[in-house]
Design brief:
By secondary structure, the protein is mostly beta strands. The chain contains 2 helices and 6 strands, in the order E-E-E-E-H-E-E-H. The chain has a single domain (2-95), classed as OB fold (Dihydrolipoamide Acetyltransferase, E2P) (Beta Barrel).
């Protein structure tokens, strides 16, 4: 499955040790359907080396490819939304109802020479 949205939260990396050795996991919240009166949100996670590979930051617009799975623990069931591919979404701000600035970059001025006798 795929979803496009804006990253609105990045949780701290979680680490632990399981029967297969050390593991690390990080969770992210993406807001999608921003043009709706009530935007929707989804939390997904990345495991292991994918955390460093994608380096997702708050405010980014991304396309997330993910799988949904469910597991049972002590008689309760838990959903798991695990991303397997992340791509930057260059078109999302305009489509999602966010205004993207079209202003030119600020001008670059030469350094000030303070050795001059001029008062300005």
């Amino acid at each position: 499955m795929e979803i496009k949205g804006k990253v609105i939260a990045v949780t701290p990396v979680q680490t632990g040790e399981g029967r297969n050795g050390l593991w690390k996991k990080q969770e992210y919240v993406v807001e999608y359907d921003q043009t709706s009166q009530y935007p929707r949100r989804m939390m997904f996670n990345l495991w292991g080396d994918k955390i460093d590979q994608y380096h997702i930051q708050e405010g980014q617009f991304i396309n997330v490819s993910f799988d949904i799975d469910c597991r049972e623990y002590n008689g309760r069931w838990y959903n798991d939304i695990r991303a397997w591919k992340i791509e930057a979404d260059q078109e999302a701000p305009a489509e999602a109802g966010f205004v993207q600035s079209s202003l030119p970059p600020p001008p670059v001025f030469p350094p000030i020479d303070e050795s001059s006798d001029l008062p300005f």
